[in-house]
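**Fold in tokens:**
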Amino acid sequence: MSGTANLAPMLLALGAAFCFALALILTQFGLRTMPSWRSPLYSIGGALVVAWMAAIAFVDWRSFNLDAALIFAGVGCIFPVVVSILSVRSNERLGPAVAGAVGNVTPIFAVLGAVLFLGEHLGLLQLAGLAMVVGGVALLALRGGTGGRHWSVWVLGLPLAAALVRGAIQPAIKTGLALWPEPLAAAAIGYALSTVVILSLVGRRAMKEGPAIRSGVLWFLGVGFANGSATFLLYAALGLGSITMVAPLVALFPLMGVVMSWMFLRGERLHALGLLGIIVSVAGVILLLLGGT
């Protein structure tokens, strides 16, 4: 690729990283006016709108494949709804910077899965990246809090569980895309089923408690728009550039979250050890991604 050809996927990937980080910050504002159990109703609904708008505009529905659609629907029953629930809880307890950094370790599960089940071997870059990610998370655990926020080590399991779900659904998504190569359709169908799931989980409770505060609804619709836009930009970047180029740039979103926290959330100041942990873990994720290509 020429320098000009490389520029478009790089900008799209950075745009996706920015939107992922923005969703973390918007979540903090939304949690001031809405309980965390209720928020996925609106964040998933907002992302559903973005996904279907993009799918209607860009998907070739004439090539529809029922088997692929059923796979996407099955995935949608757990993703992104489970990740949304875990993410908002981890963001509430850990803050956006730490939640983003720990939740960005999905490549660990992909690499470990390949070693355990496919007989693959770790290269030097992957070993170094794995060690850095573990070390970065350990630094965050040792710190035990950011700014005025304090948490127990077990709370780190929330974003780690979200990362595990992200990694676990990837083989199914790849199988579906092999049958029907329309990632935007996969996202749209998945968000539709996740909407059904979250409505079944908390819809009745939300109706009993009455209408939510309007500002809270708007904040979490914004979270959904940000996440949906990030997914769209990520798919577009992967369509134009290689994973080697795109994935490390998207993996920078926790550092963008640190900057945004400093700018907009005065109560989320990171101590030096926490910032070092985030930088080390993000660098480790990038090495894992580069080592696997």
User: Anything to note?
Assistant: The radius of gyration is 19 Å. The longest helix spans residues 3-30. Residues 3-291 form one domain. The chain has a mean pLDDT of 83.
